[in-house]
Amino acid sequence: DEGRGLEIVAAAADEPGTLIGTVIPPHSPVLDELLAGRPVFVDDSATDPRMITQVAWRFGPSMLLPLESGGRVLGTLAVPREPGAPRFSEAEKSLAARFAAQAALALVMADALHDRERLAVYEDRDRIARDLHDLVIQRLFATGMTLQSARRATCEPEVAGRIGQAVDELDATIAEIRTAIFALQQDPGEAQAGLRTRVLRETGIAAAALGFQPSVRFVGAVDARVGERTTKNLIAALREALSNALRHAGASRIEVTVDATATLAGGCPAVRLTVADDGVGLPREGRRSGLANLRRRAERLGGAARWGPGIGAAGGGTALCWTAPL
Ligand SMILES: Nc1ncnc2c1ncn2[C@@H]1O[C@H](COP(=O)(O)OP(=O)(O)OP(=O)(O)O)[C@@H](O)[C@H]1O
Ligand SMILES: [Mg+2]
């Protein structure tokens, strides 16, 4: 990494433990050469002024070879000899350079394979999540509606009570499935990515389906201030809002704002997500499922969610405003 130097992460030596973790600091002369893709040959590591790590004095002649593939430097292969050992010959140098090129290729291939496997898993999980959302939840909803109209139709209080219970059960089941969907959609590697990256990833994915890129604005130090639990929930809310805008709004413009300098009604510091579109606007009445769910998520964190007019001409469209403590 250009900003952080190079760290020794693997060593084949008698005492690898004493080498691993050694850092070649950023902007050292050797590092600049290596990052430019050029090998560095040193006649004596112990005395060469370019060798500035605390382990260099233990070695004699050294070769430092960039592991480069497709113009990207993945790391460095260091091949040192004992102090006083003969220098590397031209033949040895060129052999080592070729070996480094092949090693880099092997690293890239292994990486690509790993990515492909991960992608396959995610695609599968996505499909399951989509099926649960589009098929199972919608059907449970429809069943709930049928039951509710049956309840209104009966004049037997006992029957009405039982039907009411069944509807509650269905609601609880839907909530559980939603939690499972949410878990399925979490990328295990995603926990390391900051809020900013994750927001941009979501809007990027939505852009492909929408045919235009939502605008995104960040206010304040969103990565540093917002905790993991709130981040996860905010991403779920953003995903729901974008999916609504895509499916219901017919919008031509979407503006996403993440403001880490907001406050809650009580004065508690908070993060506010706003997703505004210029589409047809929310119907006044009607069922709320995804929206109700994201409001519940906000409230569970001690926050709030509300919706109102969006950014269409004359106050048209929908804006969702989702706030939770940092
Ligand atoms: N951005 C929007 N623009 C216009 N109408 C919307 C928008 N978001 C939601 N709606 C309307 O509000 C209704 C409720 O939205 P909600 O997200 O709660 O449920 P849903 O999207 O229909 O179902 P689910 O979220 O479970 O897939 C939608 O059915 C749709 O009619
Ligand atoms: Mg929805």
Automatic annotation (TrEMBL):
One Pfam family this sequence matches: GAF_2
Domain of life according to the entry: Bacteria
GO molecular function: phosphorelay sensor kinase activity; protein dimerization activity
InterPro entries according to UniProt: GAF, GAF-like_dom_sf, HATPase_C_sf, HATPase_dom, Sensor_HK_TwoCompSys, Sig_transdc_His_kin_sub3_dim/P
SUPFAM superfamilies on file: ATPase domain of HSP90 chaperone/DNA topoisomerase II/histidine kinase, GAF domain-like
A cellular component term, taken from the record's GO annotations: membrane
Swiss-Prot/TrEMBL keywords: Kinase, Transferase, Two-component regulatory system
Every Histidine kinase/HSP90-like ATPase domain range: 229-326
Protein name: GAF domain-containing protein
Record organism: Streptomyces boncukensis
